[in-house]
Structure formats: structure tokens, C-alpha cells
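User: Can you model how nicotinamide-adenine-dinucleotide sits in this protein?
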Amino acid sequence: MNPNKTPNEDHKVLRVGMIGLGMIFDETYKPVFLELANSPLYSPATGPVDIRWTAAATRTGTRGQNYLQQLKHLIPPFENCHGDDAIQKLLASNVDMVCVATPDDRHFEAAKMALLAGKHVLIEKPSVLTLKELEQLQEIADQKKVLAKVVYHKLADPDHKKLRTHYADSVFRHINNGYCSLLEPKSISGKQFAEWIVGRNPGTYVAVHYIKLIDFTFGPASVQPGWELIRINATGQRGLVGNADGPTWDSCQLQITYRHPDNREATFDIHTSWVMPDNFPGYVEQEVQFRFDNAIWNAHQRKRGVEMAIEDRTPNELKNTPNYHYNGAFLEPWGKRSQRGYGLEIIHRFFEEVAFVEFAGPAPSRGDRLQSMKELSYNDLSADRNTVAIVQAMEAILSEHVLGNPGAQVLVNGPDGGLVLYRPGKSEHLILHASKV
Ligand SMILES: NC(=O)c1ccc[n+]([C@@H]2O[C@H](COP(=O)([O-])OP(=O)(O)OC[C@H]3O[C@@H](n4cnc5c(N)ncnc54)[C@H](O)[C@@H]3O)[C@@H](O)[C@H]2O)c1
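Assistant: Here's the modeled complex, given as C-alpha cells:
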């Protein structure tokens, strides 16, 4: 779009503020904003709705400055807020919704500020790190009558949609167990995230993709009453990213157990790492297997058929086995260039949900529209309780490990509370969250 083009007066407008302009912004949000700058959202109920990226907040402002330069012929300029009060400046700039893509331990504050300011909020995964934080955000969102949602793009992967469809239609019957693995190269822990890696672990960063997939696909409780999370175990290895006895983890193995309404258990192992060799074939290697009473399902996120080798370019600059379904830049058969995939679709969908709330009918029925969007359990914070509980439990188990108590276990909704940690050889337990998960 010509950035100097006169905006269409007939279109409704939603302005977006972006907090954090890192890797995920570049991969997914940026192409969505560029596409939406050329073509408004449209539904018969809302009419055309322009989505405008009008403000960004980062600590130094350097990345914002780079994007202002890089995109100056493509989109109108945005307000580049930076410094200690960057988020306050962004919130004062008349945005209607805010996307939070800061490192995972900095989601809460940013999201809370945006919700308090009455903005609709979309948070990158994992939404927050504790149930207490989740409850606070939900409470504020309810008070301010706005949406608070989280991005889990794997739920929009066609393979995962079909998995869920088969389960919902009883083609796959009664999940029993499974494994998921998600491995990343050393460059992620050593370069990309080097600034904020201390004290962090790859489980919180990427196991959440599969935690949510499992929780959503085989539940949620609203769809399958009686499907309950009951137990969480975790361990991991240290010594490459940080010291062997320090708080920074190279790899994690997480085990989560649910109970079906018929009292049979289902257990899932999720392995994650961010210290694979930089030239390993995956770049991001993702493999899943689920076993049912009557079926087995295997999926590989990148081995979907394409394999290529290009002198001097694969496997670093270009991948040997790319996943074009997540995100790909294409020359369309009709001649246009595009960038598309489920990683972008899931963000686009959030904007549609906000447009629906604000513009799909008269003001007096806004509350009904808001409620119907809040009931979408794939992305609403209210449906993120199990995922956040598992992340909180895993982080608590790993912290105990650092203190010299490996092998702790967390029980969910047991006799001592909602989320309770038990340590081998110690009689006293630790209540992580007293009320029901
Ligand atoms: N959906 C996915 O598949 C996916 C993939 C990668 C990352 N993520 C998530 O996105 C988030 C960001 O990851 P990334 O890879 O883009 O990280 P990154 O390190 O590349 O970028 C982080 C950005 O946040 C900014 N930032 C940091 N602290 C800030 C603060 N206090 N206020 C304002 N800005 C701040 C930094 O300046 C930077 O622009 C994480 O939560 C991560 O889990 C999601």
C-alpha cells in the first residue's frame, strides 16, 4: 500500500500496538500487518475494517527504527516508543488492541498494563507463568470488557485440526499416551535469546505448544467433562548454556498425566532442547505420536514431503525439509507474491475476533458478542489454566532441582490444594496454588 494513500472514510478502523519486535514479530506479525495494509478485514456483519499497526514498544527503539526504514514504502509510519516508559507511551497513543511478544517472563506486566488501559490483548505463548498472574489478567479483562487471548498456532495446523476432528468424531477412541519432541539449535540459546536466557528453560519456551495441543485436543473439560489434569513430573540437563549446577537449562523432559471420566489415565512425555547442533537437519525438529484404544497417530512437522539441497544455502539459510504450512513466502499461481501459513492465520483470526466484538452489530449487544468470543477455548485466557498450571509446576520442579532436590512431583487438585509440589525425602509440601486449577 502506498503509505501516503488517503484512508477510506467508509471503513471502520482498529489500531494495533506491538510490544516486542523480535524474531516472532518478524516471522508472523510483520507479514500479517503488511497484508492487512493492502486489504481490510471483511465480513458481512462488520463491513470493511482497516487494521493499522500504529505503535510499537521496545526497550531501545533500535528495531523499531529499523522497521520504520525497512517498511517506509509499504506502510504508514508507526509511533516508535522506547525507554523505561515505552509501554505507557504506546498505551497513550490511541491503540485499540495490543500484541505482547516480549520474552515469556515479561508477558505479565505488559499484558496487565494493556488490559488496565482497556485494550484487547493478544499474548504470545506461554500466556503467563503462574495461575495467580493468569487470574489477575482474566479479572482485569472481565472488568474492562475486553478480550485477553493467547497465540498457540499449532492448533491451526491442518494436521492437528484433523487429529482433533478425528478424536471429536470418535474415529480415534480414548487417548492413552503419547510423546512429543521439539528440538531447537544452539543458535537459539546461544545467540537469539542470549540476552534473556539466564534462569530460563526450553520447556516453558516450546513444550507449551504441545501442552496446549494435548489439553485442547483431548479436552478441554468443557467439551469432555471429567477429563482432568492430575500429575506433573519434570527433569532436565544443564551445563552447556549455563553451569551444570545453575538455573539455566539445556533440555527438559516433562511428563503430564490426565484422568479420563472412566478413571483410566493418559500420560504424555514432552522432550525439548535448545542445544542441538546448528546444522542439524531440523532447525526446529518436531515429532509427535499419540496412541489410542484403537489407533496410533504419528506426525512430523517438517517431513511433510519436501526435501531439498542447495549448494551453499541448505541447511542454514534455507532448510532441507521446510514446513511451508506454518509460514511460507510464495509466488502465487495468479502472479502475486504472498506470505501465508497457519502461523499468520492465527494472528489474523484474533483481529477478526476483535472486529466482530466491536463492529458486528449494535452497541447494546456488544456484551453478547464479547461473551461469544471469550467462549472460544482455543485462545481465551480463561481456557489456559491447565497449560499455565503445567508451566508453573514444571518451573517449580526445575527450581527445586537447582536447590538440590531433583525428582519433585506436582499433584493437581489433590487433598492439599490446587497445585502442590512434593519432594522426595521431605515430609512438608509446597503449595504453588491453593485454589482449584
Ligand atoms: N508462536 C511461536 O511459535 C513463537 C516462536 C518464537 C517465539 N515466540 C514467543 O514470542 C515471544 C518473543 O519471542 P521472540 O523469539 O520474538 O524473542 P526476541 O528475543 O527475538 O524478541 C523479544 C522482543 O521483546 C522486546 N522486549 C524485551 N523486554 C521488553 C520490555 N520489558 N518491554 C518492551 N519490549 C521488550 C525486545 O526488545 C525484543 O524486541 C516469547 O514469548 C516467545 O515464547 C513464539
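A couple of observations from the model: The two ends are 47 Å apart (CA to CA). Residues 19-25, 57-59, 63, 86, 101-104, 106, 124-125, 151, 153, 192-193, 205 surround nicotinamide-adenine-dinucleotide (CB under 6 Å).
User: Helpful, thanks.
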